[in-house]
Amino acid sequence: MLKVEIVTPERRVLTVEADEVRLPGVEGSFGVRPGHTPLIAALAAGQLTLVQGGNEQRYAVGEGFAEVSEDQVRVLVEEAVRAEELDPARAEKELAERQKKLQSMRPEDPEYEAVRAHVERAAARALVATRRF
Predict the structure, then answer these.
(1) What is the pLDDT of residues 84-117, one digit of tens each?
(2) Which structural domain range is residue 97 located in?
(3) Which residues touch 105 (CB under 8 Å, ≥6 apart)?
(4) What's the confidence (pLDDT) of residue 130?
(5) Which CATH number does the domain housing residue 59 bear?
(6) Are 79 and 93 part of one and the same domain?
(7) Is 28 left (phi over 0), alpha (psi -120 to 50) or beta?
(8) Is 0.85 surpassed by the pTM of this model?
(9) Count of domains in the chain?
(10) Same domain for 62 and 103?
(11) Cα–Cα distance between 18 and 21 in angstroms, integer?
């Protein structure tokens, strides 16, 4: 079993044991199971999936990092929201609003990178909210 911990700047979201965790790495998604090689990976905004006894829990996560060592996975991300807590219509509306704001900006604008990050997190929430497994 893996010990999985998800932490945001505001709070510890979750500490559980899981059979597997799937993470949205900046260079592509990857999975971790017991016995995985130690690593530190940069995470992109996207879907994190916990597998426990054949059941899956999905989270929309913001960018951050994951540390894997000795069957422990520490996930440090900007945000983590469980799929069941997301409203698909609201998530889609928020994504559209944030994309519109980003399109009105230039990359040189001081707030551009912060707004771009908000768009990526909104896209992750919309993706997780609308996926039904």
Answers:
(1) 999 999 999 999 999 999 999 999 999 999 999 9
(2) 85-130
(3) 111, 112, 115
(4) 86
(5) 2.60.15.10
(6) no
(7) left
(8) yes
(9) 2
(10) no
(11) 7
Residue 110, helix vs strand vs coil: coil
47 shares a domain with 101: no
DSSP states of 52-97: ETTEEEEEEE-SEEEEEETTEEEEEES-EEEGGG--HHHHHHHHHH
Q: Is the Cβ–Cβ distance between 114 and 102 less than 8 Å?
A: no
Low-confidence ranges of the chain (pLDDT < 70): 132-133
Identify residue 92 by its one-letter amino acid code: E
Q: Are 79 and 22 within one domain?
A: yes
Residue 27 C-beta-side C-alpha neighbours within 13 Å: 3
Same domain for 96 and 60:
no
